[in-house]
Amino acid sequence: MKKFFFFAAALVAAMTVKAEPNVVLLSDVANYIDFQELSQSFPEMLNVTVTSTSICELPNGTQLVGFEKSDGTETANTWNVKDAYNTTMPTPTWENVDSLTVGTMFRAGSNTTIELGAFTTKADGKLVVYYQPNGDSERGVEISVYDEVVTGTNLTGSGVKIDGIRPAYAGEIALPAGSYDAGDVVIKLVVNTSNIFGVRIEQLQGEGVENVNVNAKAVKRFENGQLVIIKNGVRYNALGAQL
């Protein structure tokens, strides 16, 4: 009888002290772009508003490019800091969540693009975009590699709140091993506005991003009425002079 009592007590205790989900920080998940970490390391970025003629280039060569609507107005693209996001963040394993109660994200509108800088992967992996639909509708991202749209999972999510919480998603595509030049991989926001928390590239070479400086793709942009050519993260004018 005593053995049964102790067994029952242990069972009740185990059920009572059920462990909380293991929290994974976004900085441990978004190994390529972490907008929260960037806002801390480069606070001047918080004042940047991205438009079709004024882009923002991140330290790893990634470019945030806005979009002009048919009526001449620009989509809303800003760095947004909140004390509470009221969301949950999936991890790559989908087993744990990061409550992400404080921090920073990039609020981007339809057709805004995130053109990744050069990187190298050492094995087949995947590209993951962590985003939150910023409204009560179906919204998401489109990912293209070498100008071809790639199908994946969780690229579209619902912004409808459940018990007061608006969910976030980890949209992902398979990414073959290899060296990718600047602009080879592009993330485009579709259907209104979403909050972008970060981007992960699995199987990165070494500890971080290995910049590719050979045959890198030159990106041309008009900024404030002037042609700017960006190659390997370096900016040139139309005459080839470094800016």
Task: Report what the structure shows.
With 243 residues, the protein is mainly beta. The chain has one domain (22-216): Jelly Rolls. 11% of the residues lie in helices and 37% in strands. The chain is globular, with a radius of gyration of 21 Å.
The CATH architecture: Sandwich
The number of domains is 1
Question: How big is the Rg?
Answer: 21 Å
Low-pLDDT stretches are: 11-23, 91-99, 210-216
CATH topology name, in short, is Jelly Rolls
Secondary-structure element order, as H and E? HHEHEEEEEEEEEEEEEEEEEEE
- Quick check: average pLDDT? 75
CATH level-1 class: Mainly Beta
**Percent of residues in beta strands:** 35-45%
Helix/strand structural class? mainly beta
Shape: globular
Major β-sheet, in short? 7 strands, antiparallel
- Please count the beta strands (DSSP E, at least 2 residues each): 20
The helicity comes to 10-25%
Please report the distance between the alpha carbons of the first and last residues.
84 Å
Number of helices: 3
Keywords:
243 residues, mainly beta, Jelly Rolls, 7-stranded antiparallel sheet, 6-stranded antiparallel sheet, 11% helix, 37% strand
Quick description:
This protein has 243 residues and is mostly beta strands. The protein has three helices and 20 strands.
Secondary structure layout:
Layout: H1 2-16, H2 26-29, E1 33-34, H3 35-41, E2 56-57, E3 63-65, E4 78-82, E5 89-90, E6 97-98, E7 103-108, E8 113-115, E9 119-121, E10 125-133, E11 138-145, E12 148-150, E13 156-158, E14 169-175, E15 178-180, E16 185-190, E17 194-201, E18 219-223, E19 226-231, E20 234-236
Antiparallel strand pairs: 1-17, 2-3, 3-8, 4-7, 5-6, 7-17, 8-16, 9-15, 10-14, 10-17, 11-12, 11-13, 11-16, 18-19, 19-20
